[in-house]
Write a structure and sequence with these properties.
This protein has helices spanning 2-19, 58-65, 69-75, 125-134, 162-165, 178-181, 198-215, 242-249, and strands at residues 33-35, 46-51, 89-95, 102-104, 112-117, 144-148, 155-160, 182-187, 222-224. Strand 6 and strand 7 (155-160) form a beta hairpin. It has two domains: 40-98, Membrane-bound Lytic Murein Transglycosylase D, Chain A (Roll), CATH 3.10.350; 106-249, 3-Layer(aba) Sandwich (Lysozyme-like), CATH 3.40.80.10. The strands form three sheets. Strands 7-6-8-5-9 form a five-stranded mixed sheet. A two-stranded antiparallel sheet has the order 1-4. A two-stranded antiparallel ribbon has the order 2-3. Helix 1 (2-19) packs parallel to helix 7. By secondary structure, it is of the alpha/beta class. Bound molecules: zinc ion. Residues 116, 225, 233, 235 line the site of zinc ion (ZN).
């Protein structure tokens, strides 16, 4: 019940923010709004190390850990807030537990949500970025990555990639022209053999519900990669828990 209450509060907040012309936050994306999960109890703070992901900004990192940009810049002796490098490790002083930062951009192009697995044991958005660049792609193919606790990211951490922050077509599902109209979400893991972790499922449900609500995407348009007509793949894996997923996102 508690979780449902938080979810409802989060969606409510999303809607409130979505209806504002400008979100009351320091942002370089003034027409966008951003969804946050409310804190769930007393906030325990501790220093954290953060590895900068593809396209990640100090603003996004600041919101993720609830630490000001100035404090992060001071702790890392940064002089230019725009000069972050992928793979750079940052000290985040007195970081709060991470919150998902899902920016909602005004758009009518997103009609589907496509769920993938990475088909790897571990990895992060940065790892997939490098692998996809090696294939000659411009950037990582997915719009979002939901981590599984490997590679220095936390279990259930939601990473937004440049495909999302720049509102680019994806490179995750050519079948059904989904790259130009489907938001690609990749869960790290191989769900032919492993289970989706409870935290990954919680984050996936939160992300999918946030996107469904804001872009008015019906449940019938939320699909596993392999369920897209013409796609020949078992992605996101034979063990993907569809009944639990649909129970939490319908
Ligand atoms: Zn896939």
């Amino acid at each position: 019940m508690k979780r449902i209450a938080y979810l409802c509060a989060a969606i409510g907040l999303t809607l409130v923010l979505a209806s504002c012309a400008r979100a009351p936050v320091k942002t370089s994306l003034p027409t966008a709004s951003t969804a946050y999960l409310p804190p769930s109890g007393p906030v325990m703070r501790q220093d954290a190390i953060h590895t900068v992901g593809p396209g990640e900004t100090l603003w996004r990192i600041s919101k993720t850990y609830d630490v000001s940009i100035d404090d992060i810049m001071g702790a890392n002796r940064l002089t230019d807030s725009s000069k972050l490098e992928m793979g750079q490790r940052l000290l985040i002083p007195q970081a709060a537990p991470i919150k998902p930062v899902i920016t909602i951009y005004p758009s009518n192009k997103w009609k589907y949500i496509i769920v993938h697995h990475s088909a790897t044991e571990g990895g992060t958005a940065l790892d997939f970025y490098k692998a996809h660049r090696d294939r000659g792609w411009e950037t990582i193919g997915y719009h979002f990555v939901i981590d599984n606790g490997s590679g220095g990211k936390q279990d259930g951490q939601i990473e937004a990639t440049p495909r999302w922050t720049k509102q680019m077509d994806g490179a995750h599902c050519a079948a059904g022209s989904m790259n130009s109209r489907g938001i690609g979400i990749c869960l790290v893991g191989n769900f032919n053999y492993e289970k989706v972790s409870p935290k990954q499922m919680e984050s996936l449900a939160y992300l999918v519900n946030t996107l469904k609500t804001n872009y008015r995407i019906p449940s019938s348009n939320v699909l596993g990669h392999g369920k897209v007509t013409g796609a020949k793949t078992d992605c996101p894996g034979k063990k993907f828990p569809w009944s639990e997923f649909y129970a939490r996102t319908r």
